[in-house]
Specification:
By secondary structure, the protein is of the alpha/beta class. It has helices at about 10, 105-110, 130-135, 135-155, and strands at about 1-5, 20, 40-45, 55-65, 70, 80-85, 100, 115-125. Strands 1, 2, 3, 4, 5, 6, 7 and 8 form an eight-stranded mixed sheet that branches. Strand 4 and strand 5 form a beta hairpin. The N and C termini lie close together (about 10 Å).
């Protein structure tokens, strides 16, 4: 089975796919994944270095709170970065490497799965007000095209 996980409703409403799930405070029927499942995480992220609107593919997720690292399977032809997952919105950091920040990827990576793919859209430069205002329909067209190629590969 292929599952799509988004952290927020504004991401959930943009993904055109079946078997999609909203995670977080308003989780909709969170599935029990197995080691045979494919998970695709799509969503917004922040970065202190990258231009807003950039689509990236994380290759590693690190839980900021625990330091636990997870590998993400590469499949998209997008720039690769480490994703630091925090339980709160990151507005400042001592991390100097070019990276991204989100609130879900490390948690998703801990779920059982066969493959885990992720695409992130830089929505802010660690500024929650900018994040709230960012909602680019044209980027979501590209995201939906990219994830449809993954579905074709796994059918």
């Amino acid at each position: 089975m292929i599952y799509y996980f988004m952290a927020m409703e504004k991401e959930f409403n943009k993904v055109k796919a079946d078997n999609k799930y909203l995670i977080g405070m308003n989780a909709i029927n969170m599935p029990q994944t197995t080691s045979d499942d494919i998970i695709i995480n799509v969503g917004y992220c922040g970065s202190s270095h990258l231009k807003i609107g950039t689509v990236v593919e994380p290759l590693e997720a690190i839980n900021i709170d625990t330091g636990v690292k997870y590998s993400i399977d590469p499949i998209f032809n997008k720039p690769h970065y480490t994703c630091y997952t925090s339980s709160v919105f990151v507005e400042e950091t001592d991390i100097t490497e070019q990276c991204i920040f989100d609130m879900e990827l490390a948690k998703i990576a801990a779920l059982p799965h066969k493959k885990l793919y992720s695409l992130k859209i830089v929505s802010d430069n660690l500024d929650e007000d900018a994040f709230d205002a960012y909602d680019p329909d044209e980027v979501w067209v590209e995201i939906n095209e990219l994830i449809s190629t993954v579905v074709k590969l796994h059918q």
